[in-house]
Structures are given as C-alpha cells and as structure tokens.
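Q: For a teaching session next week I want to show students how multiple molecules come together into a single three-dimensional assembly. I've collected the sequence lines for a complex. Could you give me the predicted structure tokens for the whole thing so I can convert them for display?
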Amino acid sequence: MIKRVNFERHRWLAFLLLAPQMLILTVFVFWPAAQALMQAFMISDPFGVKSTFVWFDNFEAILSSPEYLNSIWRTAIFSTGTTAAAVLGGLLFAVLVARVRRGKTAYKLLVIWPYAVAPVLAGILWLFLFHPIYGAIALMLKQGFGIAWNPLLNGNDAMLLVIVAASWKQVSYNFVFFLAALQGIPRSLIEAAAIDGAGPVRRFVSIIFPLISPTTFFLLVINVVYAFFDTFGIIHALTHGGPSGATDILVYKVYADGFLGLDLGLSSAQSVILMIVVIALTVVQFRYLERRVKYAA
Amino acid sequence: MIERTPWLDRLCHAMLILGIAAVCLPLYYALIAATHTLQDVLQVPMPLTPGGELWNNLKTVTSNGTLGRQLTNSLIVSVGVTVGKISVSILSAFAITYFRFPFRMTAFWLIFATLMLPIEVRIVPTFAVAAHPLQPLAWLLETTGTGGAFEWLTGWSVEAVVKWSLLDSYAGLILPLTASATATFLFRQLFLTIPEELLEAAKIDGASPMRFLVDVLWPMSRTNVVALAVILFVFSWNQYLWPLLITTDPAMATAVIGLAKQISGAPEAVPKWNLLMSSALLITLPPVMVVIVLQRWFVKGLVDSEK
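A: Of course. Below is the structure for the complete assembly, covering every listed component.
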C-alpha cells in the first residue's frame, strides 16, 4: 500500500532513505543466509580450502544421524512443555487478575517483571534453587520426599529444569496478552450470561474462553517460536545440551556442530531445516492474522 | 462486579498470592544469597532471611572493574541497538509509504523476508561475515588486479582490508542487530493511518519530504517510539547468542555474557553463589526498572510490535 498523495519527484531520496536498512540486511542477513544455503549442499575439507558440491548428502547424513533425531525429539518435548506451562500460567494469572478488584496494579507488576530478566539469568536463578548440592528446592525434595534430584546427571531432571526456567520468563508475556484480551470482552455479554444463571466457571468455559481463542492460538505460535529459538542461552549456560544429549535442542545443536564441531556442511544443512521451520511458523501466524481480521468484521 | 461471591474472591486472592510467591521465589533466593557470605549460603539448610553482607558482596564484584565495564558495554549496546533500529526502520517505513519509486514492493518484501531468517538459523555464516566483512572487496581487488591502485588511493593495504574485523567491537555488537522487519512494519502501519490531508497541506506549504518527516510524522509517532524503545531496550540488554559469538575479550563482553561465562566456566568447582547472585541482581536491575517504571509503555509496545 502507498499513500494516495505522495512524493513522486524524489526517487533518489527514497533510495537514500532505504539504503541503511538494505545495506545491513544484505551484509548481515541475506548474504549469510545465501551462504548457509550454499554450504548445505557442499562438503568442505577441514581447512576450508576446497569444497565439493554433494547435492543432498548433508541432509541425508543429518536426517539419518541418531543424534539429530534425538535432538528433534528433545526439541519437541522442550517446546511442548514450555509452551503448555507458559500459556496455562499466563492464562491463569490473567483470569485471576481480571477478576479481583483490589490490588490489581500490584499483582500486575509482580507478574510482569520476569519478562525483563535475560533467559540466561532466569536459568541461573532457577539452577540455584534446583542445584543438587545446595539448591533450596532440591534439598527440600531430597529430605522431604526422598527424591534424589540431580539435573547435572539425570536427563529428565535437566529437561524439567530448563522447561521451568524457560516458561517462567514467558508467563509474563502471555499474561499481558491474555489480560488485554479479557479486558476487551464486552461486559454486556458476561452480564447477559450471568442473568441467564451461568456461574463464573460456566461463563469462562462457554463464553470467555471461546472469545479469547484467537489470542490463545496466536500465543501458542509465539511461544513455540520462543522455545525453538530464544532459549539458546538457557541451554548454553546450564546444561550444554547434556547430560548425554538430554537437552540438546535444535538451535543448540546448530551452534555446537558449527562452532565446536566445525562441520560447516552439517551445520548449514541444519540451518536450512530450521529456516523451513521458521517459514512454516510465520505462514501459520499470518494465516491466523487473516482470520482475526474476519473475527473483527 | 457482576455478582457477590466473597468466597470465590478470597480464593482468587489466595491463588494469586501463591502464584506470585512461586514467580518471585527465584528472586527472593537470589536476594538471600546476595546478602550473605559464601559459608552462610552453602549451609544446609540455607538461611531463609536476608543477611547484612549485600554491601560487601557488591563491593567485591565491582572491585576489579570488569563488571562495571561490562555493564557500560551493555548500556552502549542496548542504547545503540534501540536508537539504530528505530531510526533505520522509521526511514525505510517512510520511504515505502510516502514515495513512488521502482522496486518499492521488492524492498517491502525483502524486509518482510527477514522475519523468516532469525540470527539463530544463520549463526555460522553471519559470524564469518562479521569476522571479515570486507572479504568481498579484497577478493574484487585481487581478481581485477587493482590492489595497487587501491593502496595508492586510500593508503590501506589489501592485507589490512582482509584483516579488518568486527569482532570485539561495538560496531560488531550493534550493527547486525539494527535491521528490523517488525519495527518497520509497525511504523508502516502507523503511517498508513495518518490522514492524507496532512501531506496535502504540507505540500501546499512547500514542505520538503524531510521537513514533513521531522515536523509532522515524527511528533505523531512519538508515543509509539517510546513504547517500542522500551521493548527494544530490554531485548538488546538480554541478547545472548550474538554477543557470545562476537566477543572473546572479557572487556568487550556484555554483562549478561560475562555472568554466564562465570557459571559455565568451571562446572566442578563450587561457584561463589553469593557473588554470582549479587552480580545477577545488578545486571537484572536496569531492564526490570525500565519495565516497572514504564509499565504502561511496555505493555503498549509489546502488544503493538506483535500486530
């Protein structure tokens, strides 16, 4: 879309205005992305001197390696767990805050602040609570319930720790959106239902929840994107993908294979697979946006 | 209030307090750890109330200057990325909504496509570009044999061009993060809602395009700019992957990276939790304060930037 009234006689200025954005995009986004695409179909020798074109060999190698399949599986568990916990947590807080009358502002503030904490720091804060030797919660579990909690040795414990840390931070984000959605519901609808004799629970199930379902769907997509891409710091600082690959999610594996394993071909093939995932998620998100426009109309 | 439900209300408050206690638990424990000596923190069980060592711990973590330096780096990078992103995207949104020129839609779709190329999926090649950004120029000079002329003209040798790198520099930390599809769209949406009559009036008064941008569009976008700036500041302060790759020198690392390196550096040794938590509190304070003080803008920015 363009303005009906516009500057027709300033072409050169338009190019000048676009130049900074285009320059940065070309150098730091398109050029590297094109290289990733190219290298995904090549094998380079360890010194990076010679590369040979090998068609889909890298993809075949990566998709048949048990480590990569493990990584896909771990990513699925991690993103499902994080998304479910964060969306449910955000919804619960939003419903409660929307309902109470006193202390609303204080409650809001106390739920929102974790958004400002870096994912890595969130991870470190939770590690401190769950550390097998001096973590307060870990000790409580051990002495109170006899559970020998150890995220440094046990894969499931490690997975739970990173899920808790990742979703804790995202609850505030979901809370903001759910609260906005709840406050956007016309009061007349709720009042009409109350007059018809529907209690608070019934009103939530039959009226409120269906009305905020577009927000819920949108948040599901956003949270999956978050769990896939923005949680690298938590994994990198806390578990390094371990113990024995238990938290080796896809984004961490691209990094590990590229920078620690120095295998450009395999790492690039993984990059391309991740690009396909992002494109799919973006398409889903925009299909949803179209639908939301229809809701409003 | 629709009906009187005193018991349900009380239950709501009780659940909220319980939930918030769970959410704030890590912060509370960080605070306890930051206010005790290491021996006290490592006691079993750990003390449950804050102690009096906060000042000493803070003094210890800031004594050698690294943390102070890294906090300054974080501030420079966050302000740089925020200002950079906003100016770059306001300019390009202005160009694609108010100018008619060839390849206008191409430019729009190119910017749109970057939504699908987050840095996480192109880590290795982006790092390679940042390590040797002028490699293509050097290659061009060598293949065309104009290296000598270039050296004579600019006074730089071809080797210097190849070696020049963005690693461990503010430019390297800031530049790759300054392009933004989301911010560009935000401003584009905003400009599309601005009445056509304003530009007609400005044109009649003889305003140039830049004049129109500065005197009409900028004042009208100010609230959106503030809201966006809050989000971007928090986002850049908390960046992890890119600063981790681009900096090797602790003096150029951001505060978040500095702290994370202390944790993952020595997995076997007992970390000095009291000091770690003191640094963690210091590092988290700026973005949390921004969010709390500018809460209204923060919420607006969050909702705006996802449309």
